[in-house]
Design a protein that fits this description.
Layout (H helix, E strand, L loop, with lengths): L1 H28 L2 H27 L13 H29 L9 H27 L2 H30 L6 H28 L8 H10 L4 E12 L2 E10 L5 H18 L3 E10 L9
Parallel strand pairs: 2-3
Antiparallel strand pairs: 1-2
Helix pairs in contact: 1-2, 1-4, 2-3, 2-5, 2-6, 3-5, 3-6, 4-5, 5-6
Amino acid sequence: MQRSVRATVLGLAVNAVLACVKLTAGILGNSYALIADAIESWADIASSVIVWRAVVIADQPADADHPYGHGKAETLAGAAVAVLLLMAAALIFGQSLKEVLTPHHAPAAFTLYVLLGVVLVKETLFRFVTRIGHAVDSSAVKADAWHHRSDAITSAAAALGISVALIGGDGYKSADDIAAMFAALIIGWNGWRLLRPSVGELMDAAPAGDIVERATAIALSVTGVRGVEKCLARKMGYGYLIDMHVEVDGELSVASAHQLSHDVKDAVRAQLTRVNDVTIHIEPHQPRAPALS
């Protein structure tokens, strides 16, 4: 959790500085693409605050009101960040279209250098935060990382548009606005791409990967387990919750079956450290008839 918080706070600080620089340069340099880029950075700041609070809440232990823990706060934050991306994309696209239809001066040359510096900083930040997001498997941190990548994409598109406007002259004054519209489409696509897995987690969709297969194999390796009739998993914040139907000898005493269920639970949690809890349902083993050839 501490790694997630540090990455989020770092992103928050960098975004605050860059947003101010881009907004000032955009206004002074007459570049709406740069102003739109600044708007996207302010969305980054909002998302970083959301993620920062979410990872703190998600790390809190279970209590009477939240017996399964607070992990969904992290998933909700991922969805909120994705929605912010979609909103930023819509705002940038709409304002850029308005600027294309409104005659205005070409952007100043210095705005190009500002944008190239922003691209370098934001792409570096994206790679750093992405590594942490994958390390802790946090949808919120991954979404926050893509906010940085989206900012880099917006800045790169704006730099290209400004370059065309400066080289092409009066006939290409709207090039930076068109570039901002193109960047808005990319940002919107990333927002949708990040929203889908967050919604899936909120709906308790089956997690990606082989967590179910691995948990089943571990259970079958425990002495006394005759079979695993069912194994279900769902993601809760940084960890997983597993429900498993374990088949045992039908002649076992209640006490022995109870102990065996604890053995399975302990084995799964020991080998799969991100599994927070395993609920075991004991069933009598029913020998299955061999398949007909």
